[in-house]
Structures are given as C-alpha cells and as structure tokens.
Specification:
Layout lengths: L20 H8 L3 E5 L2 E4 L1 H20 L3 E2 L5 E3 H7 L1 H4 L5 E4 L5 E4 L4 H8 L11 E10 L14 E11 L2 H21 L4 E5 L10 E7 L5 E6 L5 E3 L19 E4 L6 H8 L7 E8 L2 E8 L6 H8 L4 E3 L2 H6 L20 E5 L1 H4 L4 E7 L2 E6 L1 H4 L4 E2 L18 E16 L1 H5 L3 E3 L5 E3 L1 E8 H11 L1 E2 L2 E2 L10 E5 L5 H13 L7 E3 L6 H11 L3 E5 L3 H4 L1 E6 L5 E5 H17 L3
Parallel strand pairs: 3-7, 15-17, 17-20, 27-28, 27-29
Antiparallel strand pairs: 1-2, 4-6, 5-6, 7-8, 8-24, 9-10, 10-21, 11-12, 11-21, 13-19, 14-15, 14-16, 18-19, 21-24, 22-23, 25-26, 29-30, 30-31
Helix pairs in contact: 1-13, 2-6, 2-13, 14-17
Bound molecules: adenosine-5'-triphosphate (ATP) and magnesium ion.
The site of adenosine-5'-triphosphate has 15 residues, from strand 8, strand 21, strand 24 and helix 13.
Length: about 575
C-alpha cells in the first residue's frame, strides 16, 4: 500500500472523552471513527487489524473441528420468552418491532437462537459432540459505553456453542475451547490470564474468563503469588478475619456531625477503620438488600445477587430505605425493620460480625452507635461472605498472599449444562432410546475488544507497538527525502521485494518531512521500519528499526527485504 493512497485521516486533537491509550491512538491514527454512543466505523487500518484477529480466531476454531455458521443478528422475541430471558436480560437488550407488531431483539448473544436452530435436527447421540460457531456483530445497550472499542454497543464477537450427550463430553468440549483460547490470545501476542469466574445471569456453573492484564482494565483479578489459583475478584472468596477479643461494652448513641465518609467517621471517633461497620443497600428486582461489611472492606454485589437471586441490581432509593427504617448515610440493622428475607434482607459479612465494640449507623441523621457487637446486637440477619478480596488477603487454596491486578475480559468459556436445552426443549435420543437434553457449552471472544487490549498492553508515548500477528501492516519503508530520486528508487525496490501492493507493507511515498513520516510510523505502530536516507545510495545500505524493542541495524540494500522477513518471523515466533 502506498501511504499517499491510504485512507487514514490522522487527528491532531484527540477528543477529551478518549481517556485511554487504545481509544486515543485508534482515533488519532485514523483507525476508527465514532458514529454515535458506542458505535464505531473501522477505517482501513483498523479494519485490517480486526480481520487479522478474526483470522487467528477462525484458524484456531476450525483447528478444533468446530464448524463456522452464521445466524441472524435479529432474533424473534418468542425464543427469548421461551427461555425466560426476554425480561431477565434487562435493559441491555436492544428491542425492536416490525410493521406487523412482531417483536425482535438485536442479538446480545445467541444461546436461544442456536438451541432452537438445532433442536429439530440434532436428534441423535450419533450426531454429537458438535460445536458450531460464528463471527458476528453483537448489540448491547451498555449503561456506560466507553473506552472506545473496549465497551461499545455494537462489537464483533466470536461465539461458539457445543452440544454433548453428557457432562463428561461437555467437560471435554469445554477443555478443547479453553485450549483454543489459549492459542488465540498467545498468537495475538497478549499477556493474559485465564481466571475462574462467576457465571452471572447466563446460567451454568463452570466458567473461566480470559483476562488481558492492563491498568485500563475494568475488571479486577485475584492471583495467588504461590500456586496456580486465579479468579475474577467477584468470584474469589475471601477468608473470615478474626479480631482481638474485647469485653463487650454497652451500646452508646454518639453525635457524629460532618462524617460523610467512613474515613471521616473513624477519624472523628479516633478509631481504626477496621472498628467501623459500613452499610451498602441495593434494590434487586424491587427487594431492598442492606449489606454490612467491615469499614475497610467493599461489598461484592455479585455475591449478594447470587444469594438473593434476581436480575437487576441497582442502588436502593431513599424512599425504599426509609420504608424499612433505614436512614441514608447512617444505615445499619440497628433500630431498623427486622428482615423478612422476602422484600427486605440484611446480609452481614462474617468478618463484620467479628468486629468488637464497633461503630455503625444509628438510622438517625447525624448519629452513630458505638460499642456495637454484631453477634449480640444485629438481630435476625443473614451471615454470608459478601466482601471483596483486597491486598493483604490470602489464597483460598494455599494460604499464600494474593496479588490483585486489573484485567480486560477478552473472552469467556462457560459450561451451561442443560439450562437452555431444558427450557427450550433441545433433546436427543440417547443410546438407550431415551430422550435427553443436550449438555451445552458457550464460548465468546471479544474480537474488537481484543484489538483495544493489545494496544493497552503495547504502546508508548509515540503510539502503538502492535504484535506482528495483528499489525495493520507488518512493515513500512520510509524514504527520508521525498525529493531524492535515489532514495525513492531504493525504497520502491525494497517495497516491491516485500510484496508491493499485494504485500503486508506500506511505502511512505508522501511529500512530507521526514519527522512527520517517522511520527506517523510510530503512531500507527508498524512493527518494522526500513529507512532509506542520505547515505543509502553511496553506502548501499538502509536502516532497519524494530518498533517494539527499538533495536536498529544497518544492512546492505540487497539483503534488506530478506532481513525484514527474518526479523518479522523472529518476532512472530516469540508472539511479539
Ligand atoms: P463484560 O463483563 O465486560 O460486560 P460480558 O461478560 O458481559 O462482558 P460475555 O457475555 O462474556 O461479556 O461476552 C463475550 C465477550 O464479548 C467478552 O468476554 C468481551 O470480550 C466481549 N464483550 C462483551 N461486551 C462487550 C462490549 N460492550 N464491547 C466490546 N466487547 C464486549
Ligand atoms: Mg463475560
């Protein structure tokens, strides 16, 4: 490709809403453009990267024996009613109607569609196991689309679905996909970690997320410093902590003016934060759920949801709280309604139960109680682990210290079991002649999110440092002076040897200053740059520079193309 012909309008000013490197650089380099909230066009360079990721995914899916299909994006509402997820999926689903008043959604995922697709024809144990997959745009009305491709409302997902005759078969299909995901993300050059995860509203039990580790990640990952254990923070179960025993004192009401935060309160009372017990309240499908954790801990809303059930988790409103005797800002179970575990729950983390003579809300504006001993003073509450792990906690498997890091979820594999085959009547005839539900698994890769994750992991102040396997072009050839005919001739010859217009290479033939061309090369992130300069004709040499390592070498002109290929192969074989 000739740079003069390349449609990649670069931006000087990056919009303020682009907060992270991947979003900024893709806009700046002219790889994507925004068309609406969470909606993007892919310009040629961006599109090439997406296609390269898709091709890697395609090769690895096919290598497992899984077969590519294509299902409609638009799905009839009936099948979602049948599975019970039309309402359960919630406001993230884009819904639409046709002229005859039939209802549809834009597929956020395809469990319903695939199950109803195969249920009349996948009838015998002899046809299984089978795994079908597709590469397609998915639609989710995210509450906060942000970070560009990372959390958009239209995005490319590879989704695969496996059908087995029993649980053992499902485990095998799951492992096959898990291994394929390992190869996909390794080949894409990512630094990633598969972690145990919570299965959430999709159902099923056994599941792993593939997390690309990066500071910009929205997820938190708990990883053991000693053993293999790694889990999504929402899944990781922290230990119950003991606290030094103290003789229980009588409860006392204390005026606590201007204590907006738990830190202010601890300071005002002159106690460590660990001696406070704080409250967070949710509205889960209309139920009010008061959660109590020790002051230095945070509530794991996924654990709470798993306990209470329900689909939509929101902060409880002031009205809801007051209806149960709770005073916002000063909440606790003290002097509040007794929980009925139907419309009103109080869940206390076991570590919070151990706080001796602690401070907690008095459900009265401007007041707290001190010398609260939950085992004595919290009445009829549910005790369950609902706190998140934090630094200083230990591995639930081996007891070694854990580390907490940030991750970008680029893929997830699920064992669904028979949840969808049962609700949607997906059955087959087994060897014994009996009708049984399929054992299903589903497996997603966020293709466009993977592109963003790669940039988050590999960039510097000048731009992107693509892994070769997914770079828009593998190399750029830059004649320093666009007026020097020798330089143009030498650069064109090297470009031609690298495949010319059919190759994975760009010739920067623009009439621009050298500085502009070098800056653009760094921004776009070509893995290898060949520079043809003033001395090239006389010395019969050119310079080769590797974007990722900064390594430079001077090579003979006739050896240049071969050396570029060699370097690219070395980088590729190191997944760089
Ligand atoms: P998240 O928790 O980040 O919202 P999810 O768990 O809901 O994602 P899945 O249903 O597991 O997502 O979808 C499979 C993959 O699709 C995810 O692992 C992720 O890589 C990608 N993905 C999901 N939502 C988005 C989005 N809004 N934008 C881009 N990619 C997404
Ligand atoms: Mg997921």
């Amino acid at each position: 490709m000739l740079a003069s012909k390349l449609y990649s309008p670069t931006l000087r000013e990056i919009p303020a809403e682009a907060e992270i490197a991947s979003h900024q650089y893709m806009l700046k380099a002219g790889m994507i453009r925004k068309n609406g909230g969470g909606l993007y066009s892919f310009l040629p360079l961006g599109r090439r990267v997406v296609l390269k990721v898709e091709n890697i995914v395609r090769e690895e899916m096919n290598a497992t024996g899984a077969q590519e299909i294509m299902m409609p994006i638009m799905q009839p509402a009936e099948i979602w009613h049948e599975s019970g997820r039309w309402d359960a999926y919630g406001p993230e689903m884009f819904k639409l109607e046709d002229r005859h008043d039939n209802h549809y959604c834009l597929g956020p995922t395809h469990e319903e569609l695939i199950t109803t697709l195969v249920r009349n024809e996948l009838r015998s144990y002899k046809q299984m196991p089978v795994t079908l997959w597709q590469m397609q745009n998915k639609y989710r009305d995210e509450i906060r689309p942000r970070f560009g491709l990372m959390r958009s409302r239209e995005f490319v997902m590879k989704d695969a679905y496996s059908f087995d005759i029993d649980e053992e078969g499902l485990h095998q299909s799951y492992q096959t996909m898990y291994d394929a995901y390992d190869r996909v993300f390794t080949r894409c050059g990512l630094t990633y970690k598969p972690v145990e995860a919570d299965s959430g509203q999709i159902g099923g039990s056994h599941t792993h997320e593939f997390m690309a580790l990066a500071a910009a990640g929205e997820a938190e990952v708990v990883s053991c410093s000693a053993c293999e254990y790694a889990a999504d923070i929402e899944k990781a179960e922290p230990q119950t902590l003991e606290m030094p025993a103290e003789p229980a004192q009588p409860v006392e009401l204390i005026a606590t003016p201007n204590c907006a935060t738990i830190e202010d309160l601890a300071k005002f009372m002159n106690i460590p934060v660990e001696k406070t017990i704080k409250a967070v309240a949710f509205d889960i499908d209309g139920k009010v759920v008061l959660c109590m954790v020790r002051g230095d801990h945070e509530v794991n809303d996924v654990a709470v949801q798993n306990l209470v059930g329900g689909n939509q988790v929101n902060p409880a409103t002031e009205e809801q709280l007051k209806a149960h005797g709770l005073q916002p800002g000063y909440m606790s179970p003290m002097d509040a309604d007794a929980p009925d575990n139907k419309s009103f729950y109080v869940i206390v983390d076991p570590t919070a139960m151990n706080v001796p003579n602690g401070v907690t809300g008095a459900n009265k504006h401007g007041y707290h109680y001190t010398n609260v001993n939950p085992k004595r003073d919290f009445k009829q509450v549910t005790i369950a682990t609902i706190r998140l792990m934090k630094d200083g906690d230990v591995c639930p498997h081996c007891g070694a210290p854990i580390e907490i890091m940030r991750g970008i979820e680029v893929g997830q594999v699920f064992e669904l079991g028979t949840k969808y085959s049962e609700s949607l009547n997906g059955t087959f005839l087994d060897k014994d002649g009996k009708a049984k539900p399929y054992y299903m698994g589903c497996y997603g890769i966020g293709v466009t999110r993977t592109v963003a994750a790669a940039i988050e992991q590999f960039h510097d102040d000048h731009g992107i440092m693509w892994p070769v396997a997914i770079a828009p072009y593998e190399a750029v050839v830059v004649p320093v002076s666009s007026k020097d005919e020798d330089q143009i001739r030498i650069a064109t010859a090297i470009y031609d040897s690298l495949g010319g217009v059919r190759g994975d290479v760009v010739l920067d033939d623009r009439k621009e200053r050298a500085g502009v061309k070098f800056n653009d090369a760094d921004l776009i992130g070509y893995p290898v740059r060949v520079t043809v300069g003033k001395k090239s004709a006389a010395d019969h040499t050119v310079e080769i520079k590797v974007r990722r390592t900064g390594a430079e070498e001077v090579v003979d002109i006739d050896a240049a193309a071969a050396r570029v290929k060699e370097i690219l192969n070395e980088l590729l074989s190191n997944n760089m």
